[in-house]
From TrEMBL, chains A, B:
Keywords: Amino-acid biosynthesis, ATP-binding, Kinase, Nucleotide-binding, Threonine biosynthesis, Transferase. Signal peptide: none annotated. One of its GO terms (molecular function) is ATP binding. CDD domains: HomoserineK_II. It is an enzyme of class 2 (transferase). It catalyses: L-homoserine + ATP = O-phospho-L-homoserine + ADP + H(+). The gene is thrB. The keyword ATP-binding applies. This is Homoserine kinase. SUPFAM superfamilies: Protein kinase-like (PK-like) (SSF56112). Belongs to the pseudomonas-type ThrB family. It comes from Erythrobacter litoralis (strain HTCC2594). Pfam families: APH (PF01636). GO terms for biological process: threonine biosynthetic process. Residues 27-264 form the Aminoglycoside phosphotransferase domain.
Length: 325, 325
């Protein structure tokens, strides 16, 4: 959530010159992205009528060998009508370029805002868009493994250690302990898989009213269990702030929208309570890692893993009711 | 340089609804401003053709009673043709509104980028724009005292203490000591005064090629010695990174551009070497304050006061030559 690298106007103008987008008119560093620097860039446009783009510089966490997957997927989905921003290719056809030792990509700007408190109608639209994404990605040629699967959460949590985790919240170690082995033992192996977004929080969806104008930030996308992506999205959209209360109508609308495009099989429905617990555990694990890696006085707001411990406990208790209703 | 407050899409839409600017289409938090949160906001526009604005939320350091001065000055200068963004007034005519307990203002978006390594031609254009600002502000009705005058730098430096200052750089206390009393004793009292920008660094000037498209960030503007503002701008524009080398042609072009609009008197020219040393000391003082207030591991890049200690030493040595040539 920052701009980590300074790019001068001269750097930016030189970079923009490699694309057929006209001349640089404006560039504002924007406070978006997990570990990238981003600029909202305005140019005169290839036709002189003005154009806007998001310029992303890949700073950390992103393996450069994954960029063709991430950027190619945007083009693939966009060509199939899924609302995602296209990658702008340079005059040589490349989807990314290097600036000094960092990769950058120029990405289509799409309008819309991220909602803070989604309505059922908005959740339904997101369910539809997620199912569209799953169906449209089946014939995408590149592959990427998920590096945040159950064994990875377990490794992150083991590295952190119950002692350190208990300093974040005294209740946290036992919440993890009572679920983790269950997840590792019973994680489904034979459900349909596909490309998944794997991080479709409201922050990563731009909306205009109740219409989805863009799904963004595909930097966790990979191949995994298709219904797991629906579980992640359910965990991300269906609770009040802090994960304190389940929002019944929002959760139901998300599932209903999704199934209106891609009906779930009986085995997928049966797995959803466990997949949702896993989705909650995945965010517990990485939030714990980030929390323990961030100095307490770092002027950065640390995200509380308890927000997802509460969701995990909800799905353990009420998951069957929510998904099998 | 951050977004300190989260405003949801719903908060933003509600806020935008108080202005005659159409409906909210997009909002991106931008990494600009010293101690405010800023968003680049796009709306459908009052005419349906789209419009863009900067939404500023005043977080710290800004005394709310100063807002009519800052926002009124933008309107005053803009009406006189100085390239500054106008304040957008709400349907009740107010230039600022409260959101929860914080003031916000909607400000015109102007194109342009901040240059990193200015050319003499660009420095000349900035000199002209600064002189235009000085002349256009003479009949502005509101006043604001400078709260960063020599006695204030001296107080900041005394509060910090030579011991702590020496931990930043061992050379720093003596650089300050050899100049500070000189500045306090000889600071001119009878030079022409006017409204000054007082912080016109390249970051606060948007340019399109060699044209100034906007002077921005007026949150240090106040009444003070007119030539002091030229000195601040000279200190800010005429050196290589870190203040290591004086850029003769850039400094000369800035002075030449300024004087093409507002010729300096003999007493102003004679005072410039001392005013420039004072301008360097003003930034040394606030950078020391920020440095000592920021934890070393705060994930924020601290700005080195030595960048301005080098400039101060340059003006002590060569100031007469630079300004009296």
């Amino acid at each position: 959530m920052a701009v980590y690298t300074h790019l001068s106007a001269e750097d930016l103008a030189r970079l923009i010159g490699h694309y057929d987008v006209g001349k640089l008119v404006s560039a504002k560093g924007i406070a978006e992205g997990i570990s990238n620097s981003n600029w909202l860039v305005e140019t005169t446009g290839s036709d002189g009528n003005g154009a806007r783009f998001i310029l992303t510089m890949y700073e950390r966490r992103i393996d450069l060998s994954d960029l063709p997957f991430f950027l190619g997927l945007l083009d693939h989905l966009s060509a199939k009508g899924v609302p995602v921003p296209r990658t702008i290719h340079d005059r040589d056809g490349a989807s990314s370029r290097m600036v000094d030792d960092k990769a950058v990509a120029l990405i289509e700007y799409l309008p819309g805002v991220s909602v803070g408190h989604p309505t059922p109608e908005q959740a339904r639209a997101v369910g539809i868009a997620l199912a569209d994404l799953h169906l449209a990605s089946t014939d995408f040629a590149l592959t990427r493994e998920n590096d945040l699967r159950p064994r990875d959460w377990a490794a992150i949590l083991a590295d952190a250690g119950a002692g350190a985790i208990g300093t974040i919240d005294r209740a946290l170690p036992s919440v993890i302990e009572e679920s983790l082995s269950d997840l590792l033992e019973h994680w489904p192996e034979d459900l349909p898989s596909s490309i998944v977004h794997a991080d479709l929080f409201p922050d990563n969806v731009l909306m205009l009213g109740s219409r989805v104008s863009a799904l963004i930030d595909f930097y966790f996308s990979c191949h995994d269990i298709t219904a797991y992506d629906l579980a992640v999205t359910h965990v991300a959209w269906s609770f009040t702030a802090g994960g304190h209360d389940y929002r019944t109508e929002v959760g139901a609308a998300l599932l209903e929208g999704y199934q209106s495009v891609r009906p779930l099989s009986q085995s997928e429905i049966a797995a959803l309570p466990l997949l949702a617990q896993g989705a909650a555990m995945r965010f517990i694990a990485t939030r714990i890692q980030d929390w323990l890696d961030t100095p307490a006085d770092a002027l950065v707001t640390r995200k509380d893993p308890m927000d997802f411990a509460r969701r995990l406990q909800f799905y353990r208790r009420d998951g069957e009711k929510v998904f099998n209703a």
